[in-house]
Structure formats: structure tokens, C-alpha cells
Design brief:
6 helices, alpha+beta, two-stranded antiparallel sheet, Dna Ligase, domain 1, three-stranded mixed β-sheet, single chain, 2 domains
């Protein structure tokens, strides 16, 4: 049985997002959030379906897709495209979610490395870039995603 997201400290956070947006907290939604919260990887809808189906066998793949799009729209989940033709999902930063990070994506093996050990210089550069882009285009930046493509250590060694 899935944990109850409406209980405890993190549950209050989920509850506020759902109720504040006028949405019900259904069992499929809870189970999908549970699977994302427990995962250390970026999961595709199919990956999520396989894990959710073990907990909640009555769920269909269509429900997974619809729920993921709703969770992205609500701002609880982030959707990524790593260039392999399959969208990946991750719980957004916050209670139970991952912290802000960038991605290093191997174009050979498809490995995705979360990069969150920012140096002070990197943080300053990103802040300066955001500030200049906002000024130049009159655009209010709320968030950003940075992805670097190349070869991981393993694939780079094999190519040499």
C-alpha cells in the first residue's frame, strides 16, 4: 500500500498543491509521486508505469501519461528531454524532491549524470547570465535547465 502523501510534513506540502490548484489527491497520483520520490533516476512514463503497476495493478499507461502531464502543469514534476526520444520525469525541488541541478548526458551510452556541486564562480556566472538575459529581452526568468552533451569518462576512455 502506498504511503499517504496527505499525512506528515511532506504530505501537507502535496496537499496544499493539490487543493490550492483545485485538484483531488487520488490514489494513482499518490502512487506516481511515491515512485518519483523514491527513485534516484530520471524515469520515463513506461518506467513509472512498471513500478506503479506493482503497487497499484489497476492503473493503465494512459493514466500515467495524463497524471504526469498534470503534475508537470502543477509544478510538482519536471519533464526532461535528453535527446533519446523518451521524456524523463523527476520530482521538483522541495519537500521530498531533488535539489536544483544540471545534467551531463553521454551521447554514446545515454548515461545521465546529475550535477549539483556548483562552484561559487559557476553560480555567479549563471546569476549574471540570467540577469543579462532578463534585462536584454525584458523577460522575467523563474527557473532554468542546463544540459551538457558529450562523452562520459567510461565512453571517453573507450574512444581513445
Amino acid at each position: 500500500m502506498p504511503m499517504r502523501w496527505c499525512e506528515g510534513k511532506s504530505g501537507n506540502w502535496w496537499h496544499r498543491h493539490f487543493r490550492g490548484g483545485g485538484y483531488r489527491i487520488t490514489m494513482p497520483r499518490q502512487v506516481i509521486l511515491q515512485v518519483l520520490a523514491e527513485s534516484k533516476k530520471h524515469l520515463s512514463a513506461e518506467d513509472i508505469f512498471l513500478r506503479v503497476h506493482q503497487i497499484y495493478p489497476n492503473i493503465g499507461l494512459t493514466t500515467i501519461y495524463r497524471t504526469l502531464e498534470l503534475l508537470v502543469k502543477m509544478g510538482l514534476v519536471v519533464k526532461f528531454d535528453f535527446g533519446d526520444g523518451r521524456a524523463r520525469y523527476e520530482l521538483r525541488s522541495g519537500n521530498g524532491g531533488t535539489s536544483h541541478h544540471h545534467h551531463l548526458i553521454c551521447t554514446n551510452c545515454g548515461r545521465v549524470i546529475d550535477y549539483d556541486e556548483f562552484l561559487d564562480e559557476e553560480i555567479e556566472l549563471i546569476k549574471k547570465t540570467e540577469k543579462e538575459l532578463a534585462r536584454k529581452y525584458g523577460f522575467e526568468i523563474k527557473n532554468h535547465t542546463i544540459q551538457f552533451y558529450g562523452l562520459c569518462k567510461k565512453c571517453n576512455t573507450v574512444k581513445k
